[in-house]
Amino acid sequence: MKKFLRSGYTTGACAAAGVKAALIFMTVGKIVREVEIIALDGTPLKIPVAGVEKISGGIRAEVIKFSGDDPDITNGASVFTTVKKISGYEIIFRAGIGVGTITKAGLQLKIGEPAINPGPRKLIRNVAEEFKIGGLEIEISIPNGEELAKKTLNPVLGVEGGLSIIGTTGILRPMSEDAFKNSLVPQIDVAKAAGFDTLIFVPGKIGEDIAKKLGFNSGAIIQTSNFIGFMLEAAVEREIKKIILCGHVGKLAKVAAGVFHTHNRVADCRLETLAAYSAAEGLKSSEVQKILDANTTEDAAQIISANHLEKVYKKIATRASLRAERYVFGKMKVETILVDYAGNILGSG
Questions:
Q1: Would you say 290 and 299 are in contact if contact means Cβ atoms under 8 Å apart?
Q2: Cα distance between residue 344 and residue 349, in whole Å
Q3: H/E run at residue 54
Q4: Could you tell me which of 20, 23, 33, 119 has the fewest CB atoms within 10 Å of its CB?
Q5: 3-state class of 9 per DSSP?
Q6: pLDDT in tens, 1-45
């Protein structure tokens, strides 16, 4: 039986719901336990309100984040919005505890701005417009946000001090592969805005650590996860001149074989690639079979080393670079650095 996954609401929707609860209290003195807001795609959302209280100069509301069946790290976190009346008609946004500040160019907001994205700002402005009471100062806080932000790309993207208040509509649907891929792309925008036209693509932590040891600027190091092809295309769209692929041989050997989505459920040709290149260099068939029968690429590497065929790694790296350049129709240069789990460079090309 097909399981239907539950949707939730974004941190931006939580903040907007908190603003509405606070404004209801501010205007009519009523404490509400649920509010309805209209998502930016027109969908009505009913969101529970955990609490509303008067504080010095304003009203503070708490909404508990619910992410449905999406594996969101903020699920269950308290989102506090503090609303204060100010003169004029402007809405001013502030980053409270656990909400970050923009420190790098290339994102949707200017440097120095609170990391409250345009979608949530519009959602909050729509809510405020219902009350027509003029200027407001709105501060958003997530008490454990700074710690949670360490598990996100925020430190890489230049959002410091906490989480971003995000959401394009307000509805949080279970994370799709496309959504995850698109969440990686802003790294390229930030790196380009910082002046880098050569980027180091790393599929994971191993490649990142090696790239840093090799002296590459951390601002140019981009996490691709398994979506190497997608990120190559995104880099071409942004007119990046050169990419250096840096990662474990087991991951990047797949690129040499023409595989650009490297999750093992999509394609697992690591051992076959190592075996084929070793055979091309003269490895006898019984040893080739040992590579094919190996449990991991690390096991296969021991066979390659025992037969003094380390030169295959340069061949594989060179081929990975060639296949990557072909993938983007020669629109940028690509180099490849292969490493093992211990952090040793096996070959480059």
A1: no
A2: 15
A3: strand 51-55
A4: 33
A5: strand
A6: 445 557 788 899 999 999 999 999 999 999 999 999 999 888 899
Per-residue DSSP letter, 50: -
The residue count of the chain comes to 349
Which tokens sit at 79? Answer: 């989102």
- Amino acid symbol at 286: S
- How far apart are the C-alpha atoms of 251 and 249, rounded to whole Å? 5
Distance CA 126, CA 23 (A): 13
Beta-bridged to residue 338, according to DSSP, are 247, 347
Q: Residues 6 or more apart from 179 whose CB is under 8 A from it?
A: none
Alpha carbon separation from 327 to 202, 231, 232, 259, 333 (Å, rounded):
17, 11, 8, 10, 11
Pairing status of strand 198-202 against strand 242-248: parallel
Distance of CA 293 to the CA centre of its chain: 36
| Angle at alpha carbon of residue 279, lines to 347 and 321, rounded to 5° | 35
Q: What is the DSSP letter of 37?
A: E
**pLDDT per position as a tens digit, 73-100:** 888 999 999 999 999 999 999 999 999 9
Q: Are 26 and 145 in contact (CB under 8 A)?
A: no
